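Researcher: Let's walk through a ligand-bound prediction step by step. First, I give you the protein sequence. Second, the SMILES string for fe (ii) ion. Third, you return the three-dimensional complex as structure tokens. Ready?
Model: Ready.
Researcher: Here are steps one and two:
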Amino acid sequence: MPSVPFDTAAAVDLAQPQPAAPTVLDRWLDNVCDELSEFGWTSQSVLPLIPEGLMGELRSEVQTLHRSQALDTAGVGRGKDHTHDRSVRRDRIAWLNGETGPQGRLYALFQSIQDGLNQRLFLGLKRFEAHYATYEPGDFYRCHVDSFRGRSSRIISLVLYLNEGWQAADGGQLQIFNPENPDEVCGQVLPEAGRVALFVSEDIPHEVLAAQRTRYSIACWFRRDPIQGIAL
Ligand SMILES: O=C(O)CCC(=O)C(=O)O
Ligand SMILES: [Fe+2]
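Model: Step three, the predicted complex:
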């Protein structure tokens, strides 16, 4: 009797449409969403997803803004509570509008991250906002959360770091605290180019330790309110 050349039971029926193989982005999002669900935060490399050259272009943009003093001191709080308290935060910021070439490419990536978060976690995210931030030597951002409880406007925070060759001695680490016990540090992220931190905006207390050299980043918030200025 002729031997069966392969396991017919396990053979793929090529006549049927096959599900598309997961992409690098799918696998990245699966991992991010697992960690967000379990811990409320995650730190990942975004380099496998970033188009060639984009990190350097974004770094040049923020360095140009920095040199031309086009960054504003960042405030704390919203509306009438908005203040510039240098004992709380000392970074300088410039909002992105997605209209330069590099920002357009970054916005396409943020949009696919937003779609992927919605598909996996059913967050109902509708838009995102993002700003560049620079921390000069000595600058910090004390422990805070990014969204007031019950406001549910900023849902997920994402921070993308732009400095190359950042060492532990350069400081500026993002410290993540245990939401149940805000005295307990449960993670630290080195702000090295291509690394991103993602966390649940209203749950995760975090702080930026004092930087020892100029630190460049992009902070992005995925929001549930559809129109700027209207918080649900
Ligand atoms: O740059 C970071 O690591 C975090 C910044 C931050 O917490 C913020 O802008 O709200
Ligand atoms: Fe924050």
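Researcher: And what stands out?
Model: The chain is about 20% helix and 30% strand. The longest helix spans residues 101-121.
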